[in-house]
Amino acid sequence: MAQITLKNLAHSYLPNPRGEQDYALKEMDHVWQDGGAYALLGSSGCGKTTLLNIISGLLRPSHGRVFFGDRDVTDAATAERNIAQVFQFPVVYDTMTVRDNLAFPLRNRGQDAAYIKRRVDQIAQMIGMEAMLSRKAQGLTADAKQKISLGRGMVREDVNAILFDEPLTVIDPHMKWELRTQLKQLHREFGHTMIYVTHDQTEALTFADKVVVMYDGRVVQLGTPEELFETPAHTFVGYFIGSPGMNFIDAKVAGNRATLASGSVVDLGADHGTPSGRVQIGIRPEHAVLTAGEGLPVAIRRVEDVGRHRILRAELEGQAFNIVQPEGLQVPGEPRVTFAPGKVSVYADDWRVAPQGRAV
Ligand SMILES: Nc1ncnc2c1ncn2[C@@H]1O[C@H](COP(=O)(O)OP(=O)(O)OP(=O)(O)O)[C@@H](O)[C@H]1O
């Protein structure tokens, strides 16, 4: 296992990139701790696969270096990096049995037969395929084949890292949840460095200890699921994490006061200085509270009942604004909204402005 370090890494697919816009990955410095379970999360085209391919050695970065531990592997081929990979679609040998497919990486490295049997049985149990070990892979469903790919990716205990690129795309929803839980269990047991690429926040937040959020070729935040929820470092994180995402309202900020376009003032609870650029305040729908008396006037456009709570689709200051209301509460006749103290974030040109005296 190894710590993975990216130094001044950047990548452009163009031979002569002219500016930042020509880079699929903008310059980044980044450390993936040995034994960490990371999810790499972001919408389509933000550079997740590019980054994963650079780590695995399928792609050579146009700038910067990649280290596994102290070793510079930038020019090392995938085979030399001692990693396991699981891709979006199954890669299995149809003519082999399920057992032989799972055993393949171990046999390749000359492990002894008793160990191989023990390890394959353990992995087969994890992916729920003990009963199929003697079957040929041919004719199995795509779902079953992908489980074999996952199992084969995890069968070796001595790899530097396991890289997963959207591995559950073809798996049915119920099994997805089960496999994710088992992957997490496996991580706890064996402590592999795992990097899991996905554009699905549920997948990322349930699998990973640390989530790396990418946007437009950059890592915009690396944090625990709780940090991403409570203190999004970038408006994209606020918008992407949560359901619905964070609300943003244009404002002017001075000290602990945010003044909105209508002249209404929101108390920020802490000094935020006088940020410049496009300044917005960000409020999670869960941190907005409907009242009948105090607060800002809000118009409720639609109510969606989603089980334990309701989502109120509203309008505040002429902009769309979502409120999550606990079950059992009523919408007042002339609704107003207040924000939970200390739960209003400030953004300047999309980046979070930390309250003074506190880290981001
Ligand atoms: N081989 C390539 N040649 C040229 N441009 C590419 C190539 N592969 C990816 N790109 C571009 O690089 C950017 C990042 O793509 P990448 O596949 O890394 O994103 P992604 O986040 O993995 O997206 P997805 O979730 O859709 O796979 C995109 O603008 C994409 O069009």
TrEMBL record:
InterPro entries: AAA+_ATPase, ABC_transporter-like_ATP-bd, ABC_transpr_FbpC, ABC_transpr_MalK/UgpC-like, Mo/tungstate-bd_C_term_dom, NA-bd_OB-fold, OB_MalK-like, P-loop_NTPase
SMART domains cross-referenced by the UniProt entry: AAA
Keyword Nucleotide-binding (UniProt): yes
The protein's name in its UniProt record: ABC transporter ATP-binding protein
GO cellular component: ATP-binding cassette (ABC) transporter complex, substrate-binding subunit-containing
Single GO molecular function: ABC-type ferric iron transporter activity
Domain spans labelled ABC transporter: 4-241
Alphabetical list of Pfam families matching this protein: ABC_tran, OB_MalK
Superkingdom per UniProt: Bacteria
Family named by the database record: Belongs to the ABC transporter superfamily.
Keyword terms, alphabetized: ATP-binding, Cell membrane, Membrane, Nucleotide-binding, Transport
